[in-house]
Amino acid sequence: MSFFLIDLCLVEYEMLRFPPSMLTAAAIFTAQFTLGMSREWNATYEKHSRYGKNQILKCSELKIFFHQKAAFGKLTGVHRKYNTSKYGNAARCEPIYFLLEAWF
């Protein structure tokens, strides 16, 4: 799932403002939230990523937006790729619409 979210960002100009390390941290956070594995960004994640939850929130929000529109438009190659069993059908997971509401 995190690879799918990273691949979605590779073709988006808006994501150039974030450093690669933040893109990775936000992808892991968003993937865990999407898959229901974890709903917190604890001290261990902060220590290893060097980003707090408030720092990655905007990046995660954009990843969710790109996930929502991945199947539509001109650039659907990533969605088609991750919609196969070889990649765990990651594109079939529902985007998490409630992420921002859960933080506040």
TrEMBL record:
Residues 1-96 form the Cyclin C-terminal domain. It comes from the Eukaryota. Pfam families: Cyclin_C. InterPro entries: Cyclin-like_sf, Cyclin_C-dom. This is G2/mitotic-specific cyclin-2. It comes from Capsicum annuum (Capsicum pepper).
